[in-house]
Amino acid sequence: MATNPYAHLAYYERLVLQIKAQVVQGVLLPGDKLPSVREMAKQEQLNPNTIAKAYKQLEADGVIYVEPGRGSFIAEPLRQANTKDIAAFRPKFDALVVEAQSLGISIPILQAWLNEKEGQA
């Protein structure tokens, strides 16, 4: 039985990751319009406040931009990470590696997954 690796996340966090993944995979391209909050809430069967929270997070992360009266759009590709971004992300990555190892997932498996993701980008 497969388990959902995102089950521990709040619904808005799941939506943020889903949209970010679609951007990285090229499913969503710069300039693409996202559904309105109400439309997305209906599609995802979530409360509109949850969608609005996800959109606010995506905007804060630079993944989307909002044009009042027009909607939310996918932003241009994300900039290259700077040293501040890398330093902020490193503890999260380290925690993820520790969690994976506690579940019996080895470093070579993690490396293979990263290589696989790199090939998809």
From TrEMBL:
<keyword id="KW-0238">DNA-binding</keyword>
<keyword id="KW-0805">Transcription regulation</keyword>
<dbReference type="Pfam" id="PF00392">
    <property type="entry name" value="GntR"/>
</dbReference>
<dbReference type="GO" id="GO:0003677">
    <property type="term" value="F:DNA binding"/>
</dbReference>
<keyword id="KW-0804">Transcription</keyword>
<feature type="domain" description="HTH gntR-type">
    <location>
        <begin position="9"/>
        <end position="77"/>
    </location>
</feature>
<protein>
    <submittedName>
        <fullName>GntR family transcriptional regulator</fullName>
    </submittedName>
</protein>
<dbReference type="InterPro" id="IPR036388">
    <property type="entry name" value="WH-like_DNA-bd_sf"/>
</dbReference>
<dbReference type="InterPro" id="IPR000524">
    <property type="entry name" value="Tscrpt_reg_HTH_GntR"/>
</dbReference>
<dbReference type="InterPro" id="IPR036390">
    <property type="entry name" value="WH_DNA-bd_sf"/>
</dbReference>
